[in-house]
Amino acid sequence: MSDRQDAASGPIGKLGQNNFDLVRLFAATQVALLHMISHLQMDGAIAVPLAWFLSYFPGVPIFFFVSGFLISRSYLRSSNWRSYAMNRFLRLYPALAACFVVSVLLVAASGYFSETPPPLNDFAVWIAAQLTVLQVYNPDFLRGFGVGVLNGSLWTIPVEMQFYIAFPILIALLGPGRRALALAAVGFIAIYIGFGVLARNGGLVAKLVSVTFLPWFGLFLLGVLASLSWERLRPFVEGTFIWWAAAYAAAHALSATLLPSWGQLGNMMSLPYVFVLCGLVLSAAFTRRGLADRLLHKNDVSYGIYIYHMPFVNLALYWGLAGSAGGVGLVLAGTFGFAALSWFVVERPALRMKPTVLIRR
């Protein structure tokens, strides 16, 4: 039996019912709402306290941690690397390609291309970048549309792809044992801390490093370790959401009063927050098991919300709707409407083509 099969039959067992769909939905909505509030200049009685509350639960670190927890299980339980690669492709690319087509149509419908015709060569390069692994690339001909970057949130997609590649390589080098992976996690957490210092100074190097897996892989590996140690962690997180929420609130209160240097939030949140946030996420996923299924009925629109919100924010900005109820309505309707279409028309049919699903059938 292979090491992967050993791991699958050992620490990687079935999770049963969980609320990860709700966790992802919250994380995607957090990112979308904060971008809306910021770019659309929403400063009303609801927007300001909502932004303050959401800032304490950064969606990107949540996504990376959950990805490590679940993707590691997917890899270690897959029959071979081909099925693993196909599963990852079907989860990301069909919806991503559809979103790109919709985004181009939105820009065209806005009238922007009539005023700023895109050079054919630049347009072709943009298409190639968006449909491969360079979603961070934004052409110069789009600098006048909205914030100047059509879908800046997609920077995390290439990072996720790098996770998908780096994790099997790490397993091949170190094996699936917890100790070796824990040492790797410590190393990458050190890179995360170092990058936090680099990012505060800004510059081109920080920007280039930020779109690689290096500063974020530590968050992913924390999820991996939590997955491999699930049976040991389970008593501490199952049904304990209220206690983890209290601990997270206490950590922020302590930071605000005694340790202000710990108080950094956002994607590069301070390390003490990271560990408590990971516990909070797991407790949310395993408290009141089945809540996600009862509320969402196994529908997952989180990916659609994440990839569609910024094209609609930019459309509202280009039409001069910042600070207006019309702009908010356009972005909300467009984001959630196309997220639902993405799930029912693109994502769910694509997921039914997964090799693991076909094997079960």
From TrEMBL:
Q: Transmembrane region positions?
A: 50-71, 92-113, 154-174, 181-199, 205-228, 240-259, 271-291, 303-321, 327-346
A GO molecular function term, named singly, is: acyltransferase activity, transferring groups other than amino-acyl groups
Signal sequence span per UniProt? none
**At the top level of its lineage, which domain of life is listed?**
Bacteria
Protein name, as recorded: Acyltransferase 3 domain-containing protein
Domain Acyltransferase: residue ranges: 19-345
Provide the Gene Ontology terms for cellular component.
membrane
Q: Which residues form a coiled coil?
A: none
Q: Name one GO biological process term.
A: polysaccharide biosynthetic process
Q: Which organism is it from?
A: Pontivivens insulae
In this record, what's one Pfam family? Answer: Acyl_transf_3
What keywords are annotated for this sequence in UniProt? Membrane, Transmembrane, Transmembrane helix
